[in-house]
Amino acid sequence: MLRMTGENRGARAPLLECGSGEYSHNHKTLAPRCCFWLASHVNVRKCVAGVMLLSVLTILFYSYYVTIPLTSLVWRDRIPRPLTQCSLLASQQQAARDHRSDARLRIDAKVLVIVESAYSRLGRDIAELLVANRIRYKVEVAGKSLPVLTTLDKGRYGVIVFESLSKYANMDKWNRELLDKYCREYSVGVVGFATPSEETLVGAQLKGFPLFMHTNLRLKDATLNAASPVLRLARAGETAWGALPGDHWSVFRANSSTYEPIAWALREHDYETDGERMPLATVIQDHGRLDGVQRVLFGSGLQFWLHRLLFLDALSYLSHGQLSLSLDRWILVDIDDIFVGEKGTRLHEEDVAALLTSQAALQRLVPGFRFNLGYSAKYYHHGTPTENLGDDALLKHREYFNWFCHMWNHQQPHLYNNVSQLEAEMMLNKQFALEHGIPTNSCYSVSPHHSGVYPVHEPLYEAWRKVWDVKVTSTEEYPHLRPARLRRGFRHRGVMVLPRQTCGLFTHTLLLERYPGGRHRLDRSIQGGELFQTVINNPINVFMTHMSNYGNDRLALYTFESVVKFLRCWTNVRLASAPPLALAEKYFQLRPDELNPLWGNPCDDIRHRRIWSKSKWCGTLPRLLVIGPQKTGSTALYTFLAMHPTLKPNLPSPSTYEELQFFNNNNYLKGLDWYLNFFPPSLTNNSQITFEKSATYFDGDLVPRRAHALLPNAKIIAILISPSKRAYSWYQHIRSHGDPIANNYTFHTIITANDSAPKQLRDLRNRCLNPGKYSHYLERWLSEYSVHQLHVIDGSMLRSEPAVVMNTLQKFLKISPHIDYNKLLKYDPKKGFFCQVVGGEKTKCLGKSKGRVYPPMEERSAKFLRRYYTPHNTALSKLLVRVGRPVPHWLKDELSANG
Ligand code: A3P
């Protein structure tokens, strides 16, 4: 290798010498010469570079040929067995108790939670558990007077929960009597939690009850009372071995037959002999035999996993089934990234065999269970030779699994801005499926890293429908990854998006012993912890795992077999599985309110930003919304705002005329991209504030919530004139638009139509009169936006003194430069309104449809409307005073005219 030709020998002579045969003859002088040569030619930099190159090559070689196969061989010898310590598993599942009785019909499915303080830990735990189970609740701080408990002849709350049992026992007499009366009259039960006390009490009586408590205990080995009528979700018969969380448990002792234990435990340091050990009641039921009020009392909070089940059971029991959760739980396990994994992390033939064995075992506990395999075929046969056999084994047993398509190359769809490119990629995967007999009819797909599902990437939805007829997908990102209990589903362009749950396994969790935080962390999650609770709290669970979780020590098989067994052991839930399309249909039957999406701003969530196309923008979303209502001067205001150099209106919409009407109607379902296209980024002036005006936003049912979800920091501007004048102007407006009903009836007939009038007439009456109930709608806006974000304009003043109104508005918006609208607007005597000054003396006024000429309102209609709007106007005046805003002249006049 070191020999060189004669031509280049001259330049490299020493090298030739160093490695030539001369060395053997002359080695005594050659060695020092070589060293001398090296020292003079190989400088430090070259040396370091050489060493680095060598190291990189070694690492690559080592990791490729040695580490991974070796590691996996080592771990393959230590495949963990699923956790199965449960004597009940062999026994048949009994039908769970039904708590329903007619008493439930007199109470609402809502819980009143009385907490010690707004920030207390247990109060938060209770609220979170209720949210996770979609149970409606209201929180009140103890000590205040009780909220209203009834609506007509119905109880507003099915159960009253006291975060602190002692606060309940020591309630002031008046409130306690009121509460007891309510509980007795509506058969409403009470839940109370013993909270840690500073002093250790031994046999202390709970005030007002023949019940005695020991506090500050450490306990172990919990069991449930199989005879307790409260148990429904929870199944008795097993023991939760080991120390119970916390050092401050309370236990109950009673000498009245009204009390019956629901759960027991033993003292931690009990030095007595086994025979003398006394189970201590940690959760107790009061049948209400003494005072007619049923109660369930807990000796500790919700940190102990079993208490979460018992709490849900207590709500179900005490509300006579009004707060019972369904016992059905559906589980779908996706195995993503089939064929995608790195060498050394992929499946071998025996892993596929184990997958099938585990699937069969799971099917016995979860009817209909099948692993759902999502593949990216580009990486088929990209493993070691043994792993390639694993790929083949999967295909050989393809009919035993469900399959769904992933992206061909596992690329994130949001990186494609072009539908045809996405389609071409998807077609490659489909071609592979057809060639290898993989079923293509699941109508389900999952996108790598959730990309394109939410925030929505329209080309993905389009390509999915075209190539795969996708009708269902799932994501953890809607509305956000965290908190998990708030994840929801939605439907977009015919694709049902299911919320996906987290099972704790990620692409890189390959080995149980290397589970982040240690093996015990995963075991805790399975045995009553997060994973277990996820299944309890969600009727439909879609879990994502990856191919790599099923190789090595088959961590995922361990996880799912263990959790399913634990669920069967400790609960009466009925586990089942079904293909994704059937699950999605079930999900939206259960939660039809989730079908319509609620679009958030992708830039407000760093994870969403990462999976959103670079070609999209959100910096130009409106920071200002003019919400109307209609016929109050909203167009004039919009025009005046657009004259300000800092403010930029949306692009005109060819389909909806001047207004976008995004938040209030079906345009919303067209998606965020549709809306964003009206607010393109400016090439010249990025400091401009964009705004939009749609006058029907004011009274749109869904608008405040939708607007707040997307534009939480926006300023909201409402314009109000006399509601009677507004109603009359609206009538004239729709008449001139040829509305047949309005043209057939007089204004007076419409506004005075009663409930026996024809439906069309009633509908028109409502559309005419309702927006004028200003306080009602403003309250709804104020339930989403803070009062500092809302500005109310006096519409009559905008008409008579627009410059003054615009002056105040600029201050509210804190925009500069401050423009003197006296210079921009001029009264046009012909039109009878202020119009925009254009080129010296000329003016440009709003079109014919604004400032119409029509006969004055009949006096009898004016009188009717004055009376009709009086309560609403009074409420508006109170609202404005409450939020510190001036009461407009027209409102004062109308109120005094009536007064
Ligand atoms: P009329 O046409 O009944 O007079 P909107 O733009 O919200 O639909 O409101 C239309 C109303 O704005 C008109 O109702 C008119 O009274 C009022 N308005 C206020 N300032 C105006 C202006 N400068 N030019 C035209 N109309 C104005």
Automatic annotation (TrEMBL):
It holds the Pfam family Sulfotransfer_1. Disulfide bonds join 835-845. Residues 107-318 form the Heparan sulfate-N-deacetylase N-terminal domain. It is found in: Golgi apparatus membrane. GO terms for cellular component: Golgi membrane. 3'-phosphoadenylyl sulfate binds at residues 729, 850-854. InterPro entries: Heparan_SO4_deacetylase_dom, HSNSD_N, NST/OST, P-loop_NTPase, Sulfotransferase_dom. It is a single-pass type II membrane protein. GO terms for molecular function: deacetylase activity; heparan sulfate N-sulfotransferase activity; hydrolase activity. The keyword 4Fe-4S does not apply. The active site is at residue 631. Residues 328-532 form the Heparan sulphate-N-deacetylase deacetylase domain. Residues 622-870 form the Sulfotransferase domain. Keywords: Disulfide bond, Glycoprotein, Golgi apparatus, Hydrolase, Membrane, Multifunctional enzyme, Signal-anchor, Transferase, Transmembrane, Transmembrane helix. It comes from the Eukaryota. Pathway: Glycan metabolism; heparin biosynthesis; Glycan metabolism; heparan sulfate biosynthesis. The chain crosses the membrane at residues 47-65. Its EC number is 2.8.2.8. Its main location: Golgi. One of its GO terms (biological process) is heparan sulfate proteoglycan biosynthetic process. This is [heparan sulfate]-glucosamine N-sulfotransferase. It comes from Bombyx mandarina. The gene is LOC114243155.
